[in-house]
Amino acid sequence: xxxxxxxxxxxxxxxxxxxxxxxxxxxxxxxxxxxxxxxxxxxxxxxxxxxxxxxxxxxxxxxxxxxxxxxxxxxxxxxxxxxxxxxxxxxxxxxxxxxxxxxxxxxxxxxxxxxxxxxxxxxxxxxxxxxxxxxxxxxxxxxxxxxxxxxxxxxxxxxxxxxxxxxxxxxxxxxx
Length: 176
Known about the structure:
By secondary structure, the protein is α+β, with helices and mostly antiparallel strands. 57% of the residues lie in helices and 24% in strands. The protein has two domains: 75 residues; 94 residues, Alpha-Beta Plaits.
């Protein structure tokens, strides 16, 4: 028990403030080992994961840029008749001065009738007469195009701009 007596001697020599300081130092060392060090290691691991994610995102951007430069290869190609029909629809929109920012296109096969049905959902933005001109031009230019739905909305009564959603169905032969 000589070691214990030596510790008691030194603590008595330091007094209560010194003993409290030693206790604080021991608590700080324990806190460092139990809390700070594991969190620092977890933070370092998170930094490494973030760096890996940044490198992966940059690699994906480079790959996407290369794919875009080489053309869209991951997309299925449209049949020539469908591409020509869609080109006429977009030309009609451009001629009428209507903006078609994006669209949703779905292909379904009608086996009994040997037809392909392209369902087009196009958000549209423009003034009302321009949208009417676009519809008339597109439907007259493409006989296989049918208007399936039309939703128009004007944000304010005094606004000239109308936003809408046009739903078309384009019918083509299965081989075309």
